Amino acid sequence: MSxxxxxxxxxxxxxxxxxxxxxxxxxxxxxxxxxxxxxxGTATITVPxxxxxxxxxxxxxxxxxIAVAGATLAAPRVVQGLSVWRLEAADAERRLEVHxxxxxxxxxxxxxxxxxxxxxxPVTGSDGTFLPAASAWYPRVRxxxxxxxxxxxxxxGQRGLVPGRVVDSNFRIPPRAST
Length: 179
What we know:
Elements lengths: L1 H20 L3 E9 L4 E10 L5 E6 L3 E7 L2 E2 L4 E3 L2 E6 L6 E10 L1 E2 L6 H4 L6 E3 L2 E3 L9 E2 L6 E6 L6 E2 L18
Parallel strand pairs: 1-13, 9-10, 11-14
Antiparallel strand pairs: 1-2, 2-8, 3-7, 3-12, 4-5, 4-8, 6-7, 10-11
């Protein structure tokens, strides 16, 4: 009897986790101008069939427009500083086209490591750009654990830091001079 319950619980857990972990593909391109602190972004988000979704983006970003098959979704509602678009489940996979822009906070280069731990705002300046995951700087499907492909367009010499693993980069760090 207990083995049957354990198997039923494992099947339920797997079905639940598979839904949360199912791939939603993100292809994001962001251009940042550190001088004006302006971020301009586009994204294509592929949502699996059968999934109702809420797409969220930090309210600080304006011009947020989401289109599905060329039709723009209704204006978002605002919940706790996030713009939230609702997408009903569909029988087919959907590709969302998203465009947004906004101003990033100024990078405070005087902060030490400990002071940056609570930072949740996207920042930029002459010393670099930091886009923390908690800042909702890109549109994402709420409640999903997904990866993304990002093209980050920065001026020459500028460095950017985002969460994730670098798969490919055309930025090269020059070798250090020996002392």
